[in-house]
Amino acid sequence: MSRVLLFNKPYGVVCQFSRDGLHPTLADYIPVADVYAAGRLDTDSEGLLLLTDDGKLQHRITDPQHKLPKTYWVQVEGVPDDNALEQLRKGVMLKDGMTRPAEAQLMEEPSELWLRDPPVRFRKNIPTSWLQLTIREGRNRQVRRMTAAVGFPTLRLIRYSIGSWNLTGIANGKYQIVGV
Questions:
Q1: What is the dotted CATH code of the domain comprising 3-64+164-179?
Q2: What does the alpha-carbon distance between residue 35 and residue 52 come to, in Å, rounded to a whole number?
Q3: Which of 12, 38, 129, 149 is paired with 178 by a 20 to 30 Å CA distance?
């Protein structure tokens, strides 16, 4: 039976086991041998990272051909209007081409949200809001580029789910092992 490890990656952690001397790595949080990340999250992004001991499953999770939906909770600067949400839903033109359509909606700040260290910058005169954004591709820094392209820069980015796997019940910096 294949193992899948669901890790709630904290802000500032590098998605590798080898130490770089600058940042915390997966080795600081996951004392499990022979599991490998199925995809990546930027150092300044948080949330669900899948690891597995099954190379075929790892490939299936990361291969864009399988179009596994990835859902993000995105704190943005400002409050997106219907036009901005519709742009995200239709696809956004980025420097590397048009994105696939996304599912996008405003949401309340997640009730199970953990504190981030360091905290997101606060600007007294500029409100922030939260989006739930689901994409089916995985370009470099795609969600951040999409929200910026429609005029609402990302302040905090949390991947909540990949396919049917999600963060429910997994504290920040902790992991859960499930069989597949």
A1: 3.30.70.580
A2: 5
A3: 12
Could you tell me the two tokens for 144?
Answer: 């951040």
Is 42 marked active-site? yes
Q: Is CATH 3.10.20.740 correct for 69-162?
A: no
Better pLDDT: 92 or 66: 92
Residues of the chain with CATH 3.30.70.1560: 69-162
Place of tokens 């952690």: 13
Tell me how far CA of residue 48 lies from CA of 41, 109, 127, 171, in angstroms. 8, 17, 26, 11
Reported pTM = 0.94
Q: Which tokens hold the place of 32?
A: 């499990």
| CATH 3.30.70.580 location in the chain | 3-64+164-179
pLDDT tens digits along 24-42? 999 999 999 999 999 889 9
